[in-house]
Amino acid sequence: MPDKTSLLDELRGQYEATRRATEQHSDVEGFQAIDARMRKAFRWLESAVTYLDGITPPIEHRFDLGHGLVFEAPRFRQGSVGQHTRRIVGFPVLDEINIYYQIAAAKPVSLEVAPGSVGAAEKVLDDSGLQYSLRRVEDADGTVRKCLISIPPTIPAAISFRPDYDTGIVIVALVNVDRIDRVSLEFHSNAIEEPVLEDLVRFVLGRDAAFLRRAPLAGMHRR
C-alpha cells in the first residue's frame, strides 16, 4: 500500500505552487496604479486630440483601396476622446479609452466593378467602416453591365486602450490609422507613459512609425 502524502508535504506543494504563480505576476501593477496611469493617459490624449482638431494637420499615410484608388491629401478632422469605467472591489477604475476621428481626403473615390465582383467589393468597404453608394448601369434589356461605387472622402479611424487589471496588459487597438486595416498591440501597463503617447500621435500623423516598435502584436508574447 503506497505511503500517504504527509500534511507537511501537501502544504509544501501548495506553498511552492502559490509562489510560482506569484512570481509570474510579480510585475503586475496594482489596480489603483493602473487606473492612475490610464486616467493620466486620458487627460493627455484629450488635450492632444483637442489641439489636433483645431489644427487639422495633414496625415502622411497612404490610404489605398487597391487598383490605383487612393484617398488624396488626407487630414485629421473631428477628433474626440471618451472613456468607460467599471468597479473593482467597489472602486471606480477606467476600463477603456476610445479615440475617434475622421481622415478627410481632398475628394471622393469612385470605383467601377463588374456585377459579379460587387459582393466582394462591398465586403471590403463594410469591413473598413467606409460609407459608399452603389449605382448599377443597365443595358436596354435590363442586363446589369457594370456597377459604380462612390465613396465619400472620409475614412473613420479609431484607437482604443483596454487594460486587463489581472495581467497588467493594455491592448491598444488601431483601426484605419495608417492604412485601411486594423491591428492590436500589447503594452505592459507601466509603459503607458507620455513618450508612448507622443509616439502614438506622431504615428497617427504619419511622421514616425516608432509606436509600432514599442510593443508586440496582441497575443504574440504568449507564444
Structural description of this entry:
- The model has no long low-confidence stretch (mean pLDDT 87).
- The chain is built from four helices and ten strands; from the N terminus they run H-H-E-E-E-E-E-H-E-E-E-E-E-H.
- It has helices at 7-24, 31-55, 118-128, 194-204; strands at residues 63-66, 69-71, 75-88, 91-104, 109-113, 133-138, 144-151, 154-164, 169-175, 182-188.
- It is 29% helix and 35% strand.
- It has 223 residues and is of the alpha+beta class.
- It has a five-stranded antiparallel sheet, covered by helices on one side. Strands 5-7-6 form a three-stranded antiparallel sheet, with no helix packed on it. Strands 1-2 form a two-stranded antiparallel sheet.
- A hairpin with a 6-residue loop joins strand 9 and strand 10 (182-188).
- The protein has two domains: 22-105 and 157-222; 108-152.
Fraction in beta strands: 35-45%
| Integer tally of domains | 2
Radius of gyration, in Å, reads 24 Å
Distance between the termini: 43 Å
Mean of residue pLDDT values:
87
Number of strands: 10
Oligomer: single chain
List unreliable stretches of 5+ residues: none
The tally of helices reads: 4
Global outline: elongated
Task: From the structure above, extract its key features.
about 220 residues; alpha+beta; 2 domains; 5-stranded antiparallel β-sheet; 3-stranded antiparallel β-sheet; 4 helices; 10 strands; elongated
